User: Fold these one by one.
Assistant:
Number 1:
Amino acid sequence: MRISIIGAGYVGLTTAIGFASKGHRVIIIDTDNDKVNLIRRGKSPVWEEGLEVKLLDFVSNQGNLEATSDYQKILDTEMSLICVGTPSNSDGSINLSNIEDSVKKIGKVLSKKTDYHVVVMRSTIIPGTTKHLIIPLLEEHSGKKVGEAIGIAVNPEFMQEGKALQTFLKPDRVIIGEYDQRAGNMVLEISQDFGAPIVRTDVTTAEMVKYASNAFLATKISFINEMGNICQRLGIDVYTVARGISYDYRIGERFLNAGVGFGGSCLPKDVRALIASSKKHGYQPQLLESVLAINEAQAKKIVEIAERKLGSLLNKKITVLGLAFKPNTDDIRNAPAIPVVNMLVEKGALITVHDPKAISNARQVLPENVSFGNRVPEAINGSDCVLILTEWDEYRDEGLYQGKTVIDGRRALDPQKARELCDYHGICW
Ligand code: UDX
């Protein structure tokens, strides 16, 4: 199929490479010329293991992937997938300005198209958005009736950063929310060889499936963190408890790693947006509010443990290992490490940070007086306390921390081995 992908961010780029690797002809459209030029040279605007090699191959060798800032190129395709970002407003609600902007532009271009064209929402959008905002906007700007000349579907992505392409190509399920059957059939056509269960439903339900998925994952993490906080007071290892409950097939083993909490571009933002939307509709989502509150408290706990160990943090040398919200990504969005570093700096600590990939992103948001270590031994040399906030493999060597005070926010180390070598503390174990 000929597919245009709107937005060259993380989701758009992976989606484009994913569909190009399935043999479709893909055009990425983004208004940011710098991003477009990078992609044209086979360079990825986001770091993700293996992504750039594929990108270069499709752009240069196979020639079935191109990038442009010209929305008119939509006319060369049969389907447009909207993959632009949906950030948060200050009250946690979803900011739909990028979506609105792209839908208006698509609508204008489609006013000139004679053949049927399907617009697919792949960005995460709060339930009701397609029905109440996107369809009216498309109709207004195209002058056409949605469901007739223009089709609409919602096809949320469930990719995980760090293994984006892998999760794209082998999804656990495909959700197709269709406004008109023809649109649903076209999404089915490009999805059926993924070998995943397919749920066909209406557009609003499909939007909700995405939020419910992320809210459940976030809940699982806050649940195990709460168990960890209780276990710690009782002298119980929450990781053994997690293993014990995981064999119950109704519970499962994934997303039961207790620690400093969840971050990233999706879980925190989506839970906040769902809370804001529920309240707007007159429902107080108590469970989801607690999920966020527990998550925020985990980051504060790291600082409290440091204070218990070191007393006043004024002029104490503290090393923070790991800034990315999880390993194998350079993404620091909502990473727990950022508020932890800010809290430590406010208390007068002298901070050195290290991360294998996220340093250049972190430099833009961390206070100026934070130092950046190039190598792990150098970063921890002479420090009073080491915090591990992302479980990168290179931090997992207990031998690195001989004689140090270590606060492990991710269970990166084996507690028994670490306790033999250093003054070791887990955040909730
Ligand atoms: C998530 C969803 O998993 C994905 O389906 C959705 O499409 C986008 O959001 P991602 O943001 O890439 O993906 O990260 P994920 O692997 O889910 O981890 C999110 C956060 O939770 C990370 O900060 C991670 O460290 C934390 N986490 C995860 C835990 O603290 N404990 C766990 O057991 C699992």
Note: DSSP finds 15 helices and 14 strands in the chain.
Number 2:
Amino acid sequence: MSVEVERKFICNADALKMLEEIGACVGERQFKDQYFDTLKFDLTLKDTWLRKRKGCWELKCPTTVAVTEESSVEKSKAAALCTRYKEITDLLEIQLRVSEVMRVDGEDGLTESNAQQEDESWLSKMNLVCFAEFTTVRRSFTLEEEGVQVDLDQADFGYHVGEIEVLIPEGGDVQSALEKIERTARKLGLTGDRKVEGKMSVYLKRYHPEHYAKLLSVHVL
Ligand code: V4E
């Protein structure tokens, strides 16, 4: 299991020019995301994001923050611009985590057979429905700063956003990941001191304002 530490940014012409100078473009790809939740938003209200991307299930969920982290004001500011989520890709583990988050009773729970990738009966068993679907064109760059990737995303509903990201193992060095992200942001000339909205935030605000308002009210977005 890995943890994705990430800072989103709006990519202006200067940042793009710098990115092309200090990074190597490693390709462009297109993918469709479908996000799932119950009609009462049991998952997303707990900041848990279940999606299907290119036929594979993925779950992004919160990590626990160690008490020793983010000691100085500067470090806290840098950390506040970033998000960190655990990424789970094993379907059985995803189903277990989803059941825990929703406190689904084990009694009529999932069996090995309906935990298969192609058998989607587990979705209806857990009352999960698709609430968002969009396609992204992503250009990815690797940077001279070791382990840092920058993605430039263009969503089909008209939102563009960049992401500086570092993947670490669970329990890995978050502080070092935050420092790499901060150094990269400086190199790209990013000066913003506010968290930049992700694709989902903009999508929900536009297409599902009630869902968006609920997530805002519990500070998930
Ligand atoms: C974690 C999360 C959501 C799931 C989608 O995550 P995100 O990183 O925005 O999407 P994407 O396509 O870039 O995924 P990747 O390919 O990097 O794995 S939707 C909302 N959240 C929470 C969240 C938040 N509260 N604030 C910000 C700035 N981003 C995400």
Note: Residues 2-217 form a domain with the Hypothetical Protein Pfu-838710-001 fold (CATH 2.40.320.10).
Number 3:
Amino acid sequence: MTKFICETKNLSKKYKDFYALKNVNLTIPKGEIYGLVGENGAGKTTTIKLILGLQNITSGKVYINGYNIEENFTKAIQSVGTIVESPDLYMYMSGYENLKLVANLYKNVDTNRINEIVKLVGLENRIKDKVSKYSLGMRQRLGIAQALLHNPKLLILDEPTNGLDPEGIKEVKVLLKRLAEKENMAILISSHNLAELDTFCNKISIIKNGEIVKKDLMEKNKWNEEFADL
Ligand code: ATP
């Protein structure tokens, strides 16, 4: 059994003669929310795409639940739930119908599982309403519900609070905290805003020009000191 649900070893990505990512090492155990923070163009999305097997790795390795993403893609990706860009939702359908559509893509996701997830993301009172009537925070929670249907161990979200109002941001944070603490999930989230991940992630690493410049920071005060010069 591997200790980490997600692990990258010297992960690098080169576009022509430009390195977008250089020797990135991340380790995320169960029950941990890991924040990857960087300015636009720092390499957050590239890191996530390589972890998800959406782009070819130039050098280095990615392991998900112990499986190498290049050598054992199917096994590795079974353990991952993600929202690529924004959630894929049909506005004229209900939340429940949207979940049913995704559930149909999997063999083992039955009605009980859908209901369990609806409860987990706190949408039980509104799940029969059309998505067009949802707030942005509710839409994001529904997107996360879609990503959780197949019971992944790792949830990866690229800038999940982008475009949300403060209430929506709070809803998403509360949900992610619950998933990590109660469901023991490993969660990787990216953000360009350090302050937004404050008091929320268990660990934070800062990425700049494709390199991790501050690694595995854990305490708010320490972050503030560490970032004074960034
Ligand atoms: P953002 O928040 O703007 O999405 P990011 O931190 O996610 O930023 P990436 O999208 O990972 O950054 O990009 C990292 C670097 O790689 C940038 O300089 C970007 O221009 C470059 N890059 C990304 N995709 C490609 C590509 N397909 N071809 C060439 N360069 C690319």
Note: The pocket of adenosine-5'-triphosphate is lined by residues 15, 20, 38, 40-46, 192 (CB under 6 Å).
